[in-house]
Specification:
436 residues, alpha/beta, 9-stranded mixed sheet, 13 helices, 19 strands, 25% strand, globular
């Protein structure tokens, strides 16, 4: 794989729109992850007015390009969006205050050099099939993760040090490693050979899969073995995938087919907030929109000065003002992913003068026209995001042609056919990295 530089743009994202009558006193996040206080006590206190039972249905307009088929659709890597954490648990999770909270791990301690982490596991946790979860399951899961996802590549070795204890050895020091353990892909699965692990759809989460229509719909029901007393609230949780079909999702929402819609265009929120009985919830965390700058042979991005000039010229605050509005948007460059991706660069503060100087040093004193930058509308507002970016970099003398591509098959098109070439050759394109 060619090395890439990643210019990061943090985007504030909405989390849920909730319909009147769908849920009283609880929102979708509470269905999947309880509050920090609940996580610590492991005993759920019902919000006032909430009754157990019933079915919660939500629609998601995000085009998830990793949804699996009938064979892989139950695996945590290929599930329908938020249902990953409905069916599975991680060792930890990050709450809505952006604080690491215990989940299947109860405690974690680091060595003095921050390279070795000892993790204590929660006793008495059962999988959906009634089997007790233990260190063997965590070791097997992370052996798979090490081979399959960049989030775990910083782990050199994972070992069992007791029936309910594991130790992870990192390739380099990382004081924020517990945040990485909260990544949605790093779920714990029952131990199995690497080629079969996770395919059963069995996890330790509050819901278990009862029906899957690949890439369209998934129905889950309450896990009778769930380890958090009093949770979940609903008997059934269902997700309907409507990629790029926001109007259809909102029509279903208005007619009470769906209790919530995830991923609504922020430009529509003022109108939706005026509807009786509708509540809008905002996530405190953000998304990262990655501009992948490929450094293959002949690429203009082989010159570090051009890469840095582009990063310095993007007006992130303008994106927030135009696309999201100051009341719900913020720009930030922080990321805990740097230790798991050595190519990740946190951009500096905007500096148009410095960007012009770098372009002149690179041989472009009168500015530069970059190759076409491609994107897909993974969120409804993404086209506006890159329109603002293209306008903002003009101030530094950078012409950035942009072109929208269909969501269907976008990731495979962006990365290329690795089977044919032996390597993935990324295009100059948007690479969404999900909620952080």
């Amino acid at each position: 794989m060619s090395k890439q530089d990643l210019a990061s743009l943090a985007l504030k994202r909405r989390s849920v729109i909730q319909a009147a009558g769908g849920v009283t006193g609880a929102v979708l996040a509470q269905v999947l992850w309880p509050s920090a206080a609940t996580a610590q006590s492991m005993t759920a206190t019902k919000p006032s007015g909430v009754r157990r039972g019933g079915k919660f249905v939500y629609a998601n307009v995000y085009p998830n390009n990793r949804m699996g088929d009938a064979h892989t659709g139950r695996h945590p890597y290929y599930m329908l969006d938020l249902n990953t954490r409905s069916v599975y648990n991680g060792l930890v999770y990050v709450d809505d205050n952006l604080t690491v909270q215990p989940e299947l791990a109860t405690d974690w301690t680091a060595s003095d050099d921050q390279k070795v982490w000892t993790i204590q596991l929660r006793p008495g946790v059962k999988f959906h099939d009634g089997k007790l979860m233990g260190a063997d399951d965590v070791v097997a899961s992370f052996e798979f993760h090490k081979a399959q996802t960049s989030y775990a590549k910083q782990i050199d070795k994972v070992e069992k040090t007791g029936p309910l204890q594991v130790r992870m050895h990192l390739s380099q020091a990382n004081s924020e490693f517990p945040f990485t353990l909260g990544e949605y892909q790093l779920m714990v699965m029952p131990a199995a050979p690497l080629e079969r692990i996770g395919l059963s759809g069995i996890g330790t989460g509050p819901y278990q899969i009862v029906n899957l229509d690949p890439k369209r719909r998934m129905l889950t029901e309450r896990n009778p073995h769930y380890w958090r007393e009093g949770l979940p609230y609903f008997d059934q949780l269902e997700v309907v995938s409507l990629p790029g079909r926001m109007e259809a999702a909102l029509n279903g929402f208005r007619s009470h087919m769906y209790d919530a819609v995830l991923g609504v265009d922020p430009g529509m929120l003022p109108d939706l907030e005026r509807l009786s009985g509708v509540r809008v919830d905002y996530s405190r965390s953000g998304d990262q929109a990655l501009m992948v700058l490929p450094k293959h042979e002949g690429s203009v991005f082989n010159d570090k000065r051009i890469r840095k000039a582009l990063a310095l010229s993007i007006d992130r605050d303008k994106v927030m003002q135009v696309v999201y509005g100051q009341s719900m948007g913020w720009a930030g460059n922080e990321s805990h992913l740097a230790p798991s991706n050595a190519e990740f660069i946190a951009p500096l503060q905007r500096d148009v003068i410095k960007a012009k100087q770098l372009l002149a040093q690179a041989g472009y004193p009168n500015g530069i026209k970059l190759p076409t930058f491609y994107f897909t509308a993974s969120w409804p507002e993404i086209p506006r995001v890159f329109q603002v970016i293209a306008q903002s970099v003009k101030e530094a003398g950078i012409t950035l042609p942009i072109e929208q591509r269909p969501s269907d098959g976008y990731r495979d098109w962006r990365v290329g056919d690795k089977r044919a070439t032996g390597t993935a050759k990324h295009k100059f394109a948007y690479g969404p990295s999900g909620v952080r």
